[in-house]
Amino acid sequence: MRFNQLFFSLGLFLILFSCNDEDAKNIVKSSTKEITKFVVNGVQGTIDANTKKISLSITTPDVTNLAPTIEVSDKATVNPKSGVAQDFSNPVSYVVTAEDGTTTTYTTTVSVTGQTASSAKAIISFVIGGVQGTIDTNAKKVSLQVPSTDVTNLVPTIEVSDKATVSPKSGIAQDFSNPVSYVVTAEDGSTLTYNVSVMSQMNTNISSFTHDGRRYEIVQEGKSWKDAAAFAVARGGYLVEINNQQEQDAVFQALNNANINANNTVAPDGGGGAYVWLGGNDIATEGDWIWNGDDQGAGTSFWNGPTTGNVVNNAYVNWGRPTNGAPNPNGPFDEPDNFNGSQDALGLSLNGWPLGFAGQWNDVNEGNTLFFVIEYN
Ligand SMILES: [Ca+2]
Ligand SMILES: [Ca+2]
Ligand SMILES: [Ca+2]
User: Fold this and answer.
1) What is the pLDDT of residues 89-111, one digit of tens each?
2) Are 161 and 121 contacting, i.e. CB atoms less than 8 angstroms apart?
3) Residue 13 has pLDDT above 50, yes or no
């Protein structure tokens, strides 16, 4: 028994000893650790063995959930594993571990073919203190009224098109005493400049009324016709365009209720009477009276010719005349007389003049400093 036992132990010892010896001598573990193939959606990646970079371009626009098929050197492993989905919005690192435990890292970049840089560069929203600006995308203008009296230090929150940037940036305080230019740059580098006008709502010379679902403002601040139109546009409106008797009556009634000091809005060339500006003029072509309250130069014609002219397309007119009450579109009218050859802007009389009654219209010189009425859509 003892003999057998000894032999068994010796044999076990020899077996163990000889195995260890063989391992050490003959088995050298592989240090090879390369990615040999990297495929996403059937597209084979380009593998740079020196820089350890893999790049490929796919047509699928969404790169946030792609599962690549990866092949590596014999006996090596890769992490993350082949077939496991990854978000390729940014380059993804793959660590390859060789049989001998050494590692190397590949960086994989997936791009989307056919995707051109965006040219979108609009201001989508412009907000100051909770007040949303009115954005005119054609004119590239933003206008808003804020409750504060001081506009010298206001912080706007600006939203622009996807992938576009804006300068000055959103959240940066600006002095809005004068319009401020904001440049929006699209992803493709193209730019657009917006002009932003901010006005204080506390402008005490402005009162408002509504008619037929529309808002109007009476501005008791004397301006030339063109300056008045610019002021109206900056507020998001236009000098009032009176299209029918109801609108005429609503505007005239509101003017009568506005406690206007007639001495502060006089047109000397309009018989010395008091007037407010309406949105009509014949500045472009003498005798061609158009509604042009935003002063964009074009508008709907409502009268053609002098006092003996004609209504255009059944438009409403209320020119000065010998009688009060509702106008007869065929006249007779005493205006527009283009007095002194220099009356191209439309005034509504507050207190009558030798050739018309209060409420009626007179062509007067556009340089007069008059109050005015703004209409909003
Ligand atoms: Ca109107
Ligand atoms: Ca004229
Ligand atoms: Ca006149």
Assistant:
1) 889 999 999 999 999 999 999 98
2) yes
3) no
Please tell me the distance between residue 98's alpha carbon and the centre of ligand 2 in angstroms.
92
Q: Counting runs of H as helices and runs of E as strands, what totals does the chain give? A: 3, 26
Whole-number Å distance, alpha carbon 68 to ligand 1 midpoint, is: 64
How far apart, in whole angstroms, are the C-alpha atoms of residue 311 and residue 322?
A: 18
Instruction: Report CA(306)–ligand 1 centroid distance (Å).
Output: 23
Residue pLDDT, tens place only, 209-234: 999 999 999 999 999 999 999 989 98
In a 3-state reduction of DSSP, which class is residue 374?
Answer: strand
Evaluate the CA torsion angle 377, 216, 240, 322 in order and state its sign: positive
Taking a C-beta distance cutoff of 8 angstroms, is the pair 274, 265 a contact?
Answer: yes
Question: Counting Cβ atoms within 10 Å, is residue 334 exposed (0-12), middle (13-18) or buried (19+)?
Answer: middle
Residue 127: C-alpha distances to residues 77, 195, 254 (Å) = 55, 14, 31
Class of the CATH-defined domain 206-375: alpha beta
Q: Which fold has domain 123-200?
A: Immunoglobulin-like (2.60.40)
Q: Say yes or no: do domains 35-112 and 123-200 share a fold.
A: yes
**Alpha helices per DSSP H over 39-143:** none
Q: How many angstroms separate the CA atoms of 66 and 79, rounded?
A: 15
Domain ranges of the chain: 35-112, 123-200, 206-375
Q: CB-based contacts of 351: which residues, under 8 Å, 6+ apart?
A: 262, 273, 274, 358
Nearest alpha-carbon partner for 124 in 64, 164, 93: 164
Burial of 39 (0-12, 13-18, 19+ CB in 10 A): middle
Rounded to the nearest angstrom, the distance between the alpha carbon of 167 and the centre of ligand 3 is 48
Task: Give the Å distance between the CA of 347 and the centre of ligand 1.
Answer: 15
